[in-house]
Design brief:
- The chain has 372 residues and is an alpha+beta fold.
- The protein starts with a strand and ends in a 7-residue tail after the last strand.
- The N terminus is likely disordered.
- The protein has three domains: 221 residues, 3-Layer(aba) Sandwich (Aminopeptidase), CATH 3.40.630.40; 102 residues, Sandwich (Immunoglobulin-like); 33 residues, no CATH class.
- The strands form six sheets. It has an eight-stranded mixed β-sheet with strand order 1-2-6-3-7-10-8-9, with helices on both faces.
- Strand 22 and strand 23 form a beta hairpin.
- The radius of gyration is 26 Å and the shape is globular.
- The longest helix has 18 residues.
- The chain has six helices and 24 strands.
- Helices cover 20% and strands 33% of the residues.
């Protein structure tokens, strides 16, 4: 399925926000606008618009909540857009956005629903359950959105749910900024506990994160009174990223792409670093489920290369998948090493044994810089 990408400059918080919408007016979510808010973001020790980066909770072996939230959020975005919705991401890469920046964005765009995605944490490593949070005086729509989402997450995780203080299983009312300051029905999802060692290991598996995203998507669809399609899952793209290349060498990019409904198209997008326009090329299916395409040598320069992979399945309406999940904002990056220079050094060359000058001789400089 074709899609359109729109960039909006939100100057009050210094952000460029990516909105993605399907081009099919027949989508079940056509005309609906949603904001997906991957919690936290940014690197510790770095600043973003004057604010420090916030990795969120850190798992026992170092997994960051911010990374899990972004991966889940990007997949929820793709699932929703495949159904015709327009989706705004409060962040589509590893940057920090203030709480007010997130809610101001959603309010200014007048989205219909706001979903903030997080991982929980506790000083007790045995703690692990799922849940959703709404404002203390939340609307009935907020409560229903949270309830439907928790039900789906519980069906997948089967780890129990947060205790309730408003009489709705798995939903807890709190004074959190993002559910208090939004003008539309909103929820903050705590997917599971990253502080639990067993859960942290699961969260390192992309299929686990994808399943969490699928559950959140189903909860949103059910809340909106929409039928969840029999195939709402984007193609699975597996690829070993190319991170290094030699100047002037074409790059062969291959990926294993699978989907229960089959693959209708697979494309490779690439550009030289520092440029804004993406070039796409169709990936050709080879043996098994392996698709390949080539980035031409003319693009492989010392400035570097950026690329990502996009695939659509054969279901109608089709489901769109991308790798990396944050692309095109956060693509794969290839660092390119400049090719060594070769040439000839002309001058007077003498015989090392006799000292006699040799007329018309050349000393050839090798790629290593040595005379031969």
């Amino acid at each position: 399925m074709k899609h359109f990408e729109k960039f909006f400059s939100f100057l009050s918080i210094g952000l460029i926000i990516l909105a993605i919408t399907a081009d099919s007016s027949a989508g079940t979510l056509s005309g609906i606008k949603l904001a997906i808010d991957p919690g936290h973001g940014g690197q510790s020790g770095q600043t973003y618009n004057g604010l420090p980066g916030d990795p969120g909770a850190i798992g026992p072996t170092g997994l960051r909540e911010a990374d899990c939230a972004l991966t889940i959020g990007a997949r929820v975005r793709d699932l929703l857009t495949a159904q015709g919705a327009t989706v705004y991401m409060t962040r589509a890469s590893d940057v920090f956005v203030s709480l007010s920046g997130r809610t101001n964005l959603a309010n200014s765009l007048a989205v219909d629903r706001f979903v903030s995605i997080h991982q929980n944490a506790s000083s007790s490593q045995s703690a692990n359950y799922t849940g959703s949070h709404v404002y203390t005086s939340a609307s009935q729509n907020s409560k229903d959105l949270a309830s439907k989402t928790v039900n789906e997450l519980d069906l997948y995780h089967k780890i129990g749910v947060v205790s309730t203080n408003i009489g709705i299983r798995g939903v807890h009312a709190d004074n959190f900024h993002v559910v208090r300051e939004t003008n539309m029905p909103a929820q903050l999802v705590e997917n599971s506990f990253i502080s639990n060692p067993t859960e942290e290991q699961k969260l390192k598996n992309i299929s686990h994160l994808n399943s969490s995203a699928d559950a959140i998507f189903k909860g949103i669809m059910t809340h909106l009174g929409k039928t969840v399609p029999s195939d709402a899952v984007p193609p699975v793209i597996s690829h070993s990223a190319v991170s290094q290349a030699q100047e002037g060498s074409a790059l062969q990019i291959s990926a294993t792409i699978t989907d229960a409904s089959g693959i209708s198209s697979a494309k490779l997008y690439y550009r030289a670093r520092g440029t804004s326009v993406w070039t796409s090329v169709t990936m050709v299916k080879g043996a098994g489920e392996i698709y390949s395409a080539t980035i031409p040598s003319s693009i492989v320069t010392p400035s570097g290369v950026e690329y990502y992979i996009e695939a659509s399945d054969a279901f109608s309406p089709s489901n769109l998948g991308r790798l990396p999940s944050g692309s095109p904002v956060s693509p794969f990056i290839v660092n390119v090493t400049a090719s060594p220079k070769t040439g000839t050094l002309q001058g007077i060359v003498s015989d090392q044994t006799t000292g006699a000058k040799i007329s018309g001789a050349e000393a050839v400089i090798s790629p290593g810089g040595q005379k031969v």
